[in-house]
Structure formats: C-alpha cells, structure tokens
Amino acid sequence: MIERAENDPGARVIADSTRRGSTDAAPSDASQTAPHPARLRYIDALRGLAALLVVWIHVANCYDALSPETAAHSYWLNDFITQIDIGRVGVVLFFLISGFVIPFSMRADGAAPVVPFAIKRFFRIFPAYWVSVPAGALTSWWMWGGEFGARDFFVNLTLLQNVFDVKSAQELYWTLLVELVFYAICVLLFLAKSLFVPRRIGSVVAFLMLIYAGLMVLHWLRWPIANANLANWLLNISVMLWGAMYRGWTSSQSRDPVARWLIWGLLAGFVVILPLGTILTIGVAHNVLLAYAIGFLVFLGGTTILRIESNVGDWLGSISYSVYLFHPVVFLPIYYGLLHLPSDSQLRHQNLAVYLAVNIVLTLILATMIFRLVERPGIRIGRRLAARYEVRVAAANAA
Predict the structure, then answer these.
(1) Confidence category of residue 172, pLDDT binned at 50, 70, 90
(2) Please, which residues have CB within 8 angstroms of residue 384's CB and are 6 or more apart in sequence?
(3) Residue 130, number of CB atoms within 10 A of its CB
(4) Is 230 helix (H, G, I), strand (E, B) or coil?
C-alpha cells in the first residue's frame, strides 16, 4: 500500500512528488467455538478511517509537487503526515481489524467450517479486485507509457504477482497477499484447535516478533541473513494475530492470566520496545515502527474509549475496500490531466487541500458504485455457495 516499484510509471509519479452487534462469547479454552459474527459498527468506522488515511497520504504526496504554490503551504497536509507515515498507520489498522474480525467468521458449529470460510473470503476479495486490475493497469502503467503486458495482466488476476516477481498493476496489492496468507494461517490454527485460544495465539505472536527483532538487528549490523521483506512479513502477520488474540481474550468469559500478560506484554513490544529501538537506531522521522505504534494506539482507542457508531461510519466501513483499491484510479488520471495543462493554468496552482477534497469525494462516489455493483453481489454469491456446500455436507453426514 505504501511501497512502490521504481519501474511502475504511475507509482514513480507519486514517489517523485515527494457489522453491527456484540462481541460476547469467544472462549479462551481449547474449544473450537467462536462467537457468531455480527457487524461491529465501531470497526466499520475504523475501516473507513484506515482507508481515508491511505488516500490522504497518496494524494498529498502526488499533488504536492504540482506547483510551488501547492507545496508552499502543505506542511501539515503532506510533509508532517509523510514523516509519521499515516498511510502506514492505515495499513496497520487494516491488519489489526482483519485479525479482530476474520477468524471469528469461521464457524466451528457448521457442518464444514473451512470450505465455506474459503468460499466467502474468495468472493469477498476477488470480484472487486479483478475489476481493479485493468483499471490499475491503465492508470498506473498504460496511461504513462509503461509496459504492462499480457503475462503481467493475467498473473495479476491470481494475486500472486509478488510470488512470481511480476509487475503489479497497483503496488498497493501487496497487502492483499498478506491477507490471503493470514487466512491460510487461520485455517491451520483452526485445524490445530488453537484459533480461539488466546494464549496459543500469543505464543505464536511472541515467536514471530522475536524472529523479526533478531532479523532487524542483524540487518542494522549489516549481517543480513534474510531479505528485509521476510522480516516485514513476520511483523505484519504478528500484528494480525495480535488482533485475533485481543478479540478472543476481551470477549472471553474466563480471564486467562497467561493470555492477559501475553496480550499486554506483546502490546508493549509493538508500541514501546520496537519503536524505541528504532528511534535509537535511525531516529524519529520516517520511522516505520512509530507508524505501527500509532496504528495500535488508534485501534485500541477506537475499540475501547471512543467507539464510533454512526451511519457515516457504517457507510465508510462498507466501501473501505473499494476506496483502498480504486483511489489511485481516481487521483492518477486527474494528476495526469493537470500535468498536461499549461503551466500557468490556475487548476495547477491550487491549495493542496482542494486537491485532497476533490479526490476524496470522487473516490467515495466511485467506491460506493463498486460496492453496490460488484462487492455486494459478490458477497451474496459467496454466502449462497457456502450455505449450499454446508447443506450438502450436513446431508451427507446424516445419511
């Protein structure tokens, strides 16, 4: 979502420029019973916030370079938010939300919980994603004269472009692959009867964090034994698993003291220990782990102290996936058009806030259309197919 490949023309332009319900019944023992998923409105609000943070940093980084007048008064709208990397904060929020929600959509009381889970997740992720691939190829590559061939296009449809070292239609897709790997880990933990056991999840998180810290120390000492991307993968998966552990523990009836210490100890690692170590090493500016710490604090505040439940939050949460996928499809063509206007055109010399407002409004409109026309029908198809599969399995088991 934040990283961009140097050979992505649309990304290079940016780089060069600078639902409702309760959470009551998840047990903390080794049983495979999870609370039936209900929509959490305050989680929708956090989803919407995460998506808007990503849009903000991408549009600001891009349009800040449009003219000296635009850049002159954009400290708070671009320079400052780039230093703290609010886009990364949004990514961390998305990861924590996935951990908080996704595992608990796998119902162990169903006839066949794993396959329906996979079916529903597939139809939740891929329909809108498939629509975004040609749109992303157009606005990030073809429009700028970049090469993005048939092989690139069709591999992108599988969402495995990073695995096969193929150009990505939009560099923000890397987070979706992290999501798919997290789904697979959830299935494995479920089969191991550990998905809803906070202390077991906490042990996995602690293990991943220790490996991450060790790899990063070796990297800073210039003794790398693994690619830095591997360390980042471990960090992101541990963040998502912490979200699952936090949900399982906070909604459990039995307060496991070991789980409690793991939760708050690991939280201290994410929010204090790891960021402090990087501050001593590389300073504060552009410190990725500070963005992770801020993401955790925003998530905790939004799930405890300030639970926002409103119609606007519901709407933003429902369209947040399309906002994430399609915001470059909006701001890159507009930017392209502005670049081709005469240099003295007033449209090229507006305050950055104007460009932010226009792009956010247009992105929200497009995302709403994609949600209604693509996402929501896909969700319904996934639920229908999953229910049919469960009925068939239940009938076969009863025979």
Answers:
(1) very high
(2) none
(3) 14
(4) helix
For residue 30, being part of any structural domain is answered with no
How many domains does the chain fold into? 1
Q: In 10 A of CB 241, how many CB atoms?
A: 26
| pLDDT, tens digit (0-9, with 9 covering 90-100), for 72-103 | 889 999 999 999 999 999 999 999 999 999 99
Q: Confirm whether 319 is domain-assigned.
A: yes
Structure tokens at 94: 């998305």
Distance CA 77, CA 64 (A): 9
- Return the sign of the alpha-carbon dihedral for residues 159, 164, 169, 173: positive
Look-up: residue for tokens 């998180």? 205
Per DSSP, the residues of 125-169 read: HHHHHHHHHHHHHHHHTGGGT----HHHHHHHHHT-TTTTT---S
Q: What is the pLDDT of residues 25-54, one digit of tens each?
A: 333 344 455 544 567 899 999 999 999 999
- Residue 334 lies in domain: 39-84+107-193+310-399
Model confidence at 370: pLDDT above 90: yes
Q: Which residues, 6+ apart, have CB-to-CB distance to 322 below 8 Å? A: 128, 366, 367, 368, 370, 371, 374, 375
The answer to the question of residue 305 being in a domain is: no
Could you tell me the sign of the dihedral formed by the alpha carbons of 65, 66, 67, 72, in that order?
negative
Q: Would you say residue 297 lies in a domain? A: no
The pTM score is 0.90
